[in-house]
Amino acid sequence: MSNQVGVLVMSYGTPQSMEDIEAYYTHIRRGNKPSEEQLRELTERYEAIVGGVFPLREHTNSQVESLEKTLAQDERASGVEFRCYQGLKHASPFIEDGVDAMAKDGIKRAVGIVLAPHYSMMSIGSYIKRAQAKAEEHGIEMSFVESYHLHPKLIEALSVRVSAKLDQFEEAGAKRDSVRVLFSAHSLPEKIIEMGDPYPDQLLETSKAVANQAGIENWQFTWQSAGQTATPWLGPDILDTLQVLSKEQVEDVLVAPVGFVSDHLEVLYDLDIEAKAIAKELDMRLMRIDSLNNDPLYMETLSDCVIKSWQGIN
Ligand code: FEC
Predict the structure, then answer these.
(1) Which of this chain's residues are annotated to bind Fe-coproporphyrin III (predicted)?
(2) Nearest ligand 1 atom to alpha carbon 46
(3) What's the pTM value of the predicted model, to 2 decimals?
């Protein structure tokens, strides 16, 4: 029997090039092409952050590569070769392509994990559904990591980042305790609440755990990057939160986007450009924690979850 175990590492996906933005956006909109105005608006956002390579592609590639190396070094994996395959939700190589590649290599057992720590049926749930359907076609036995939002190494990596930026605030003359820490994540349509989705609670749990570990009390949670659709999305949005904080005379804000693990559009544009511009108008100082990208503690979080999931099917 082969000692190879496939690891399907799933991520949101980003266009390959500027010409690819329309196809990418159409995929996100489940086959409906965006209007010219929507396409122009998204293209402009990418133009503001892309210097050749789309950042999310670079980070996903490097996370998949680093995870494979981290797994190879884990003693619990001795005698087993974990082979990582990339599967993207909205771009090539798609989730189904990743599973096809595993089948082509003769993989019979695999673990699926998403580069996003919090479970929602609209995010992780849909990644898993697609991977499972394809794996069944190929007769691959797969288990999945559904969330890892309280993994001690993830919490440590995030709290170290929060503390490091609070140090910077202090060095710049701010009082540590008066910096308001805003934990944030991608908003989703409000209907997920009625559906009993664990996403909002898991995000609050991560925020509380990081706040405890970093020893901070001056914090709150806010949403970001909501879509423009007719149905309401979870709020308050970070841009509105900044307006409220300004009225409360808050001068220093540290954003910790704990729902994301990489530098990409929603961080590099929505926070670093859009939110920073609003903060400037309001005469507030806004900083953001560094993204995890391929931080060793994050890689160890993923590798621990993969191994535990594999042990369950082994
Ligand atoms: O850098 C990049 O190229 C991609 C950045 C990116 C990430 C990301 C993560 C999440 N999304 C989630 C939910 C939704 C829902 C819709 C939606 C729409 C977009 C659009 C772009 C986009 N998302 Fe995204 N998301 C990223 C990018 N997202 C671009 C389309 C334009 C726009 O609305 O701004 C609405 C779909 C619809 O119209 O029906 C819902 C969630 C995450 C975090 C979990 C994960 O990574 O899977 C949830 C990164």
Answers:
(1) 12, 29, 45-46, 127
(2) 3
(3) 0.97
